[in-house]
Amino acid sequence: MNTLYTNISQLATPRPGPQRGAAMRELTVLEDAALLVGGGLIEWVGPAAEAPAAPETVDLGGRAVVPGLIDPHTHAVWAGDRLADWEAKLGGATYEEILARGGGIRSTMRATAAAGVPELVRLARPRLQALRDSGATTVEVKSGYGLDFDAELRMLQAVRELQGEFELIPTLLIHVPPEQGRAKYVRGVCEELIPRVAREKLAAAVDVFTEKEAFDVDETRAIFEAARANGLKIKLHADQFHAIGGTELACEMGALSVDHLEASGPAQMAALAASDTVATVLPGVTLHLGLPAAPARALVDAGAIVAVGTDLNPGSSPVFSTQLALALAVRLNKLTPAEALTACTVNAAHALGLSDRGSLSVGQRADFAVLHGADWREVAYTLGASPVADIFLTGAKP
Ligand code: NIG
Ligand code: FE
After folding, report:
1. Whose CA is nearest to atom 9 of ligand 1?
2. Nearest ligand 1 atom to alpha carbon 104
3. Closest CA to 170 of 246, 76, 247, 255
4. β-bridge mates for residue 278, sequence order
5. Which residue, of 43, 129, 348, 378, is most buried by count of CB atoms within 10 Å of its CB?
6. Residue nearest to atom 5 of ligand 1 (CA)
7. Which protein residues have their CB within 5 A of the ion that is ligand 2?
8. Are 197 and 153 in contact (CB under 8 A)?
């Protein structure tokens, strides 16, 4: 049955598909709009005065509507906490020092490896609910805290269970190497873990943390080749602390996205701007770790496809709101509000290999957020409270 949503003060949306450079600012903003939904998809959108008749009408109360936000980068499944690390960091230790002495990501790995699937599901559920309450209708979730392959698979099984409640896109993250036997580990990832994850359809893509304290470019290339050979897409954590060549490799191999980019320089930005690989920036990390902000302004100006994510995780970004990440990208990464909305919708969809969502236009999924206010810019303006009143997933309240 078709439903007509009316009394929309403003409907703001990017065009469908990835937007690069100046096109990221070109939103359509309709005043006094209506939206027709049928079979979970958008059938018509336009001025209320021209709306077609429908068997059911829902009055949205004179509020603004934007596409449901898409969070393209989270580590929402973990056990334990990083509160002691945080205090050590406040006392002067760096994120990399904490990791090098066996804390940081490695401490979350120990806690996560000790948890069973039901416990991981129980811990992740309220985090995903918080992202949803902030306007996120699709959320990527990575593994990466498994000490061994079984623990890694348990994380992905937890995501699979939560897919019954949330629209989640799972990613296998090869995060940090074991302290001994890294060559054997990488071989196992390529020959056992990736084929098994692909066979069991536990992830859509493989991500690697390419960094001095994690994997080097040759190891990353081997993992990417195994991912592709098994039909999985590739994406990357790169240039968080040092630009060691991960971004260039990812662009050359056609990765969906390269994420972080705080330490990217002109060569990395040029590679991203010349590619279809999305440059995903994570302003929560800038805020929490006090790192330089990723050069999103320069990336947009160079013509790159830029997305924004929370990077929700216990160590570098305890940000439980996709809308806050959008709002921080305006303050910290110097995106305009329109660019930030595009970054958190169609461009974030492209970073996940999805083309069916992110824009309120005919044929797209009817995933949308209704704001409390009448002006769409509140989604970029508001800090510390959610400007989102309601979300609709394929045309229905979840
Ligand atoms: O995206 N940089 C590496 N990985 C994560 C952090 C994970 C953690 O600190 O637990 C990130 O920032
Ligand atoms: Fe991350």
Report:
1. 315
2. 9
3. 76
4. 257
5. 348
6. 316
7. 311
8. yes
Among candidate residues 65, 74, 89, the one with its CA nearest the CA of residue 288: 89
Q: Break the chain into its structural domains and give their ranges.
A: 3-68+357-392, 70-351
Q: Is 105 in the pocket of ligand 1 (CB under 6 A)?
A: yes
- Greatest CA span in the chain, whole angstroms? 68
Global pTM value:
0.98
Topology of domain 3-68+357-392, per CATH? Urease, subunit C; domain 1 (2.30.40)
Instruction: Tell me which residue of 131, 67, 81 sits closest to 309, measured CA to CA.
Output: 131
Domain 70-351 in CATH 3.20.20.140: yes
H or E stretch at 159 = helix 149-162
Q: CA nearest 232: which of 189, 203, 275, 273?
A: 203
Query: Does ligand 1 come within 6 angstroms of the Cβ of 314?
Result: yes
Q: Is 70-351 in the same CATH topology as 3-68+357-392?
A: no
pLDDT tens readout for residues 305-363 = 999 999 999 999 999 999 999 999 999 999 999 999 999 999 999 999 999 999 999 99
